[in-house]
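User: Could you check the structure of this?
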Amino acid sequence: MSAYLLRRFGQGLLVLWAAFTLTFFLLQVLPGDAVLIKFQNPDLGLSPAQIAEMRLAYGADSPLWRQYLHTLLAMLHGDFGYSLQAGLPVSSLIASNLPDTLSLALPAFLLAVALAFALASPRGCRGCAG
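Assistant: Sure, the predicted structure tokens are below.
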């Protein structure tokens, strides 16, 4: 039983890593650069040198492999970075929206489990009743 659980846990970690890697590289191949899109607005009045400083601060000028490793290690430590849109740490955005998410997801999950038991019980015990 413990070998099965360890194998399933390892498979779960592999799936999480694959999903992270796929998402990271898909975001990298999108056209444009998030830092440039955010800060190249003429209304902000930033010079090219200031924009270059912002790219340096966000790590957008690093090689792709370094960005990947930095992001992966940061995620493993619970640091999800900063939202360019909101200007806040992503972890605080998640924490502020988690109660509303759980208030919707938890009752839906419990209802799904109850329905699954209700529908599966008669099928599983078809030969039980004399």
